[in-house]
Each structure stands twice: as C-alpha cells, then as structure tokens.
Task: inverse folding
C-alpha cells in the first residue's frame, strides 16, 4: 500500500534538487508528526441547550486545538522521542519528562487528554443512555444514592477555585470517589487512576452562556452526560 508517509518520502527525494521544494516537503512531513486534534463526535450545536454551539466551537477549535499545537511544538523542539508515545503514557510518568518542558507538557498534554476525554463522555440529550446496571450499583454503594453522588460531584466542581476539573475515579475504600484537580491536571498524572467521568469547570467551558453561574452550568450539564460511555469506562476501570 502506498501510504502518506511513502508519498512524503518520495516527494522529499524528488524535491531534493530544489531547496525550495525540499523545504516545503519537510514542512509537510513535520506537520504529520505528533498529536492531532480529534473531531468532535457530534455537531457543535448537538449539546444545546445545555452547552451552546459557540462555546463548543471555541472550546474545541480554539482551546483544545491550542493545547495540541503547543504540546507538539514543545515536544518537537525539546523531546521529539515523546511525539510517538501515547499521551496517557507521558502523563503517567511526567517525572521522566525533562524539567525545562515538564510544566508545558503537564499543561498542554493534560489539556489534550482532558478535552479528548470530555467530548466522549457527553452526548446530545436523550442519546447518552441512562445511569443503570453495575455503574448505578457502584455509585449507590459509594455515595448512598445518585442524588448524593451528584451533590458530591457538583460540590467538587463548584468549589474548585479558579480553573480545573471535577472527576469520578476508582475509589480506595469504596468503588468510586469524587476528586477535583487544578488547571489541566488530571488524576492519572504521576501514576494515579484513570477517571471514568470528568467535568471541565474552566470559565471558557461555560462563560458565554452561564456567565459567572458555574452551579447552573453544572446542573444543566447532567442532561448531556453520556452514561453509556461512562459505563464503558467503568467496565474497563483499572
Ligand atoms: Mn476546557
């Protein structure tokens, strides 16, 4: 099969005689390396009215895209061997990332993972299934009831000062626990557990529609949680 990489290699060889064409071919090859912005699994307006189309567009096309671009730029310059590693592997072992770029990799790599995850645990109203089965049992065992779970999760999301995330993660004493992290951190950094549900409470996630009313955003967000996706995450929990 003639792949895109073969094509680039061929074009590099063909262009070697011309410095200008050679530079163009190299730029094309470089743009292929590294992490890519995943497509949203639905249209920008699919989560309305809980999340408006303009917020989704800016959040995905600008904010998430910037994390990917900055992560690639940082790694290309200072640690190109990491460009081919899964982002989870890099985040789970941040201490092995060179000191000089560790904050940039933490912020932008975290931003890339967190947002890729976030798009997948949401679905249009009525399309995300219901909270049921083993996941429902685990939530009831961990928090007594779904209402108490939602209260605990909303409290973590509301009281996270500044920018950050609320997460549902595997628990230590009970099956599941609620935690929150600042900035673009997530629980799996430095070897922690992989979340099964997460909520972005950066102002960029809600300010256009909800202004300063973060609790209202959280309340409306429950309507677009993709419980089928969360159940699949729960089933694969480790
Ligand atoms: Mn965000």
Result:
């Amino acid at each position: 099969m003639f792949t895109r990489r073969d094509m680039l290699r061929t074009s590099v060889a063909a262009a070697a005689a011309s410095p200008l064409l050679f530079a163009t071919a190299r730029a094309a090859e470089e743009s292929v390396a590294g992490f890519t912005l995943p497509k949203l699994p639905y249209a920008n307006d699919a989560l309305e009215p809980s999340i408006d189309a303009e917020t989704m567009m800016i959040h995905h096309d600008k904010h998430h895209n910037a994390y990917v671009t900055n992560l690639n730029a940082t790694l290309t310059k200072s640690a190109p061997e990491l460009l081919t590693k899964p982002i989870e592997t890099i985040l789970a072992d941040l201490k092995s990332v060179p000191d000089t770029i560790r904050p940039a990799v933490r912020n932008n790599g975290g931003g890339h993972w967190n947002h890729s995850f976030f798009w997948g645990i949401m679905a249009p109203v009525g399309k995300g299934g219901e909270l049921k089965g083993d996941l429902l049992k685990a939530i009831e065992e961990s928090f007594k009831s779904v209402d108490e779970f939602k209260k605990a999760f909303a409290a973590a999301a509301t009281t996270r000062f500044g920018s950050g995330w609320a997460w549902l993660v595997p628990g230590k004493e009970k099956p599941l626990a609620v935690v929150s992290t600042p900035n673009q951190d997530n629980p799996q950094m430095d070897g922690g557990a992989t979340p099964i549900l997460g909520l972005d409470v950066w102002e960029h996630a809600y300010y256009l529609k909800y202004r300063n009313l973060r609790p209202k955003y959280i309340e409306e967000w429950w309507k677009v949680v993709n419980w089928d996706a969360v159940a699949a995450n729960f089933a694969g929990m480790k």
User: Anything to note?
Assistant: Residues 59, 63, 115, 200, 202, 204-205 surround manganese (II) ion (CB under 6 Å). Residues 53-120 form a domain with the Helix Hairpins fold (CATH 1.10.287.990). The chain has two domains: 53-120, 133-235. The first strand starts at residue 164 and ends at 170.
